[in-house]
From TrEMBL, chain A:
Keywords: Membrane, Transmembrane, Transmembrane helix. The lineage of its organism: Bacteria, Bacillati, Bacillota, Bacilli, Bacillales. PANTHER family: LEUCINE ZIPPER PROTEIN 4 (PTHR22550:SF5), SPORE GERMINATION PROTEIN (PTHR22550). The keyword Transmembrane applies. This is Spore germination protein. The chain crosses the membrane at residues 270-288, 309-331, 401-420, 432-458. Residues 1-22 are annotated as: Disordered. Belongs to the GerABKA family. The keyword Transferase does not apply. InterPro entries: Spore_Ger (IPR004995), UPF0353/GerABKA_families (IPR050768).
UniProtKB/TrEMBL annotation, chain B:
InterPro entries: GerAC_N (IPR057336), Spore_GerAC-like (IPR008844), Spore_GerAC-like_C (IPR046953), Spore_GerAC_C_sf (IPR038501). This is Ger(X)C family spore germination protein. Keywords: Germination, Lipoprotein, Membrane, Palmitate, Signal. Belongs to the GerABKC lipoprotein family. It is a lipid-anchor. Gene3D superfamilies: Nutrient germinant receptor protein C, domain 3. The keyword Lipoprotein applies. It is found in: Membrane. Its main location: membrane. Residues 209-373 form the Spore germination GerAC-like C-terminal domain. Residues 25-196 form the Spore germination protein N-terminal domain. It comes from Paenibacillus phytohabitans.
Length: 515, 384
């Protein structure tokens, strides 16, 4: 009993000593489990007996809701109770256990375990522990089964053309989605758990022949250094292991689409998935990936390139419009075309606020509407847009609280931000910074701000890979998947540095020949 | 320690940024009076400068689609004094960057333009690409004030006219930097377009036609629209316009649309005299034939070309002689051309160029080519 107390005490600290031996007495072991799982109403302990020769008492331990009842009934309890054991077999517990494992229980995934901490871990992860009276060991049977959300189209990355499957909260369903797309033993899934208390299952997924061993090593070492008690989304992990923790720009990508994830793996990237979230991390992540949508690769490349250029332009406009407008209207009026200046001047008559206050006011209102629209139930979403467009737009102009050109500028800013859902956060911050510097220093300040932004972006790294990979390069292969998307027959190399281990995607430049 | 140093250096850089900024202090657009154009007259009463500024009226509000204007006149001793004093009338600082036109009265122009335009070219807020005009009327401000009924901004209309002048070629297009540049160059005299009020059927319109000829900064005479066109031919500034040509009976009946023109000036020493050979090569299109029989029956293309060439040679010679004899102003930039092409000769004549210009021997050989006859080769047939 003394050792039992020690086990329970250490359990209170969230740890079980692995040296804790298992007692051969079924009742003792069950009592120990009851103590470990005290105040846990979901623990189920079932004692079953086989009485064909001499009574064999066994115990099943599992957590309700995480097992497949039918499987336990048909795979464990029914065959065990019906099996006719001979006397000799019943005499030797070790042989008996082996026989039960090999011949009685018809569930594919069974492991033998004699360690208490392993068994407790198995129970909490939804496995079923099979104990036998008189034997200091247990079977660890995988009869997991729980409700998962159905595979649905991902809402954050919609595509008109392309696969409609999205990841779910279940790690194994997600791995299935990946495996189905890559039927190759080269695809590796390495498991680990993160979170000292949640023990969240984490899977690192990569192509062995493509992923850079250096980046992989770096990833493992960063994951090892993570010390956090719980991980509920990959967002936790991304912030904990990313480079440049103070930059507003993401240096680790995330995706909800299995097809996007596989395409990144195929470029030599590494993916990290965790149990409980449909968002997988991909790394290294470079700046141009912010502008890429998976649909780009499925549709005509002219159209895809056009869309990409629009997104780049949109990001630029979204940070530049308020700053540029304020700089032009308050400092460099001589640079505004005459008629435009006149109409701005006419519209600004009797507006009580300076341009900068106007700009900040409208931008704040826009962000409030955006955030409100994102948080409230969809059924009220319409009301927000009506309030935003009518009340705050039209009425504010009519009441001369803001000028009409400013409403146009803020509207343009907002709509161009929506072009790049991945960049929303950074764009807002950069936009405000540029707006302030443009207000204090005019066009000059705006350009210095842009310069600073470029310097910052150029200095970023993602797992040793330059964030602005390919920007400024004049090698044709480096720019084939950046602001434009070259046709597939021409993208015969993987991205530099990321796919350095095996650059060739296909024989160079072979396109379809005319018959 | 390293972090501290980095933070400090960033802070210092940001602070330095403020000190090297070009334009401190922002201005709201509604806090300034946008100047569209300016007229410079001489005040009859005291002989001082009288400045009339055309300001864009932005008080129209949302319902008005077109900005109006208002006129403010003030006299004073110097331009800048007047410009600053106008603030006491408008209440807002004048904003000069969008001004499009300067109109000076003939009186001011004949007395010398330096006093009127020096401030304009020197000041930091004014632009040197503003168009300059000489008023053909008594005062400059009556031209600027012409549109008081239609509320259209005169200066913007004048600027638009200058942009379309290339299709007429009846007035030179002169921006103030160009004007000042010519004032400073020996062997090149300045010109400016003349703006008139054109009255027909009781309607008053502004009309830009003709050239004011300057010697140094003083206006000495005028050229009319046709003479201006000949002058522009010599200066190789023709980009469009119309040549009207008589038929063999002497009645004007053909219009040639100028498609392109190339003029070459060749200064030569001929018989101890400096001679300027002018060769023009004009591509045209026959765009109008005012005869019933059409041009192929009446005359050949070659006939028309020949007559046009002769006519042009005569016109050009006439205007050069007029300028040589009456004004003695080298508005054709002959001197500059001699300087560029015959520097040795220029060294000799430089000292007494005005006299040398008046004495210059000029030969003109023009070639007019008709490339096409527009959409048709035939005349309009008269049915019964």
């Amino acid at each position: 009993m003394k050792s039992e107390d020690a086990a329970i005490n250490s359990e209170a600290d969230g740890k079980i000593s692995s040296s804790q031996p298992l007692s051969p007495s079924l009742d003792d072991t069950l009592a120990l489990f009851r103590k470990i799982f005290s105040n846990d109403g979901t623990l189920r302990i079932r004692v079953i007996e086989n009485k064909h020769s001499m009574p064999i008492r066994c115990g099943l331990i599992y957590v309700d809701g995480m097992i497949d009842r039918d499987l336990i009934q048909n795979g464990i309890t029914k065959p065990f109770m019906a099996y006719e054991f001979t006397d000799e077999e019943s005499g030797n517990p070790a042989e008996l256990m082996e026989k039960i494992r090999m011949e009685v229980i018809n569930i594919s995934d069974i492991m033998v375990s004699t360690k208490l901490d392993e068994l407790v871990g198995a129970v909490v992860s939804g496995k079923t522990v099979f104990l036998m009276d008189g034997y200091a060991g247990a079977l660890n049977i995988n009869a997991q089964g729980w409700e998962t959300r159905a595979i649905q189209e991902p809402t954050t990355e919609k595509a008109v053309r392309g696969p409609r499957e999205g990841f779910t909260e279940s790690l194994f369903v997600n791995l299935t989605l990946i495996r189905r797309r890559v039927q190759n033993s080269d695809l590796k899934f390495v498991f680990t758990d993160i979170g000292t208390r949640t023990k969240t299952q984490t899977c690192i997924c990569y192509m062995e022949s493509l992923a850079s061993p250096d980046i992989l090593k770096e990833l493992y070492s960063r994951l090892e250094r993570v010390e956090i008690d719980s991980i509920l989304d990959t967002g936790y992990l991304a912030e904990l292991i990313r480079d440049e923790p103070y930059s507003p720009f993401e240096t680790i990508g995330n995706t909800e689409r299995p097809d996007a994830l596989v395409s990144k793996i195929m470029e030599g990237r590494i993916a990290v998935l965790i149990e409980g979230t449909p968002f997988a991390l991909t790394l290294p992540y470079v700046f141009v990936e912010n502008f890429q949508a998976s649909e780009d690769y499925y549709i005509n490349y002219y159209f895809a390139s056009f869309n990409r250029l629009l997104r780049v332009l949109g990001a630029f406009m979204s940070i530049s419009i308020p700053a540029g407008y304020v700089a032009l209207v308050t400092y460099a009026q001589e640079m505004v075309p005459t008629l435009l200046l006149l109409s701005i001047a006419t519209a600004r008559q009797s507006v009580p606020f300076p341009t900068i206050v106007e700009a900040l006011l409208m931008l704040t209102i826009f962000e409030v509407l955006r955030e409100a629209g994102a948080r409230i139930p969809t059924s009220i979403g319409q009301a927000v847009s009506i309030v935003g467009a009518l009340v705050l737009g039209q009425a504010a102009v009519d009441a001369r609280i803001v000028s009409a050109p400013m409403v146009i500028m803020v509207g343009l800013t907002g709509i161009t931000t929506l072009l790049n859902p991945r960049l929303t956060g950074p764009l807002i911050i950069v936009r405000l910074a540029l707006l302030f510097i443009a207000f204090f220093l005019g066009i000059y300040g705006y350009f210095f701000g842009l310069l600073g932004l470029v310097i910052h972006l150029m200095s970023l790294r993602s797992f040793g890979v330059s964030y602005m990979l390919g920007v400024g390069s004049i090698r044709p292969q480096d720019i084939k998947d950046t602001a434009i998307r070259a046709p597939w027959w021409d993208m015969y190399l993987r991205p530099a540095m990321i796919g350095a281990r095996n650059m060739k995607r296909k024989p160079s430049n072979k396109r379809a020949k005319r018959p | 320690m390293r972090t501290l140093r980095r933070v400090l250096s960033v802070l210092v850089s940001v602070l330095l940024l403020f000190s090297i900024s070009g334009c401190w202090n922002y201005t709201e657009v509604d806090d300034m009076s946008i100047v569209a154009g300016v007229a410079i007259d001489k005040n009859k009463a005291d002989g001082k400068l009288l400045l009339t500024v055309e300001l864009v009226d932005t008080n129209g509000g949302l319902d008005k689609t077109q900005a109006g204007f208002k006129m403010i006149s003030l006299s004073g001793d110097t331009m800048f004094e007047i410009v600053r004093n106008i603030i006491s009338i408008t209440g807002k600082k004048l904003f000069w960057s969008h001004a499009k036109a300067i109109i000076v009265s003939e009186e001011v122009a004949r007395e010398g333009l330096i006093k009127a335009i020096d401030w304009y070219s020197r000041d930091t807020e004014t632009r040197s690409d503003v168009f300059i005009f000489v008023s053909g009327e008594k005062t400059a401000r009556e031209v600027l004030n012409l549109n008081s009924t239609t509320q259209a901004i005169m200066s913007f209309e004048l600027a638009q006219m200058m942009r379309d002048e290339k299709y007429i070629s009846s007035a030179p297009t002169v921006e103030i930097w160009d004007f000042i540049d010519k004032l400073e160059t020996l062997g090149n005299n300045a010109v400016a377009p003349i703006v008139n009020i054109h009255v027909k059927n009781g309607q008053k319109n502004e009309r830009v036609e003709g050239t004011a000829v300057f010697v140094e900064d003083r206006m000495v005479g005028k050229l009319d629209g046709d003479e201006t066109k000949s002058m522009l031919f010599v200066k190789n500034l023709i980009t469009g316009g119309v040549l009207d040509i008589e038929d063999k009976h002497g009645t004007p009946s053909y219009s040639l649309e100028i498609i392109s023109n190339q003029t070459k000036l060749k200064p030569r020493m001929a018989g101890g005299r400096l001679q300027m050979q002018i060769e023009t090569m004009t591509q045209t299109g026959l765009d109008e034939v005012m005869t019933v029989e059409g041009f192929m029956k009446g005359e050949t293309i070659q006939d028309i070309e020949k007559r046009a060439s002769e006519r042009m040679e005569a016109d050009i010679l006439a205007v050069i002689h007029k300028v040589q004899q009456e004004y003695d102003a080298d508005i054709f930039a002959f001197g500059e051309n001699v300087h560029e092409n015959q520097p040795k000769i220029w060294a000799k004549v430089k000292a007494h160029w005005p006299e040398a210009f008046a004495d210059l021997d000029v030969t003109v050989s023009s070639k007019v080519e008709i490339q096409s006859s527009a959409k048709t080769t035939r005349a309009i047939r008269l049915g019964d």
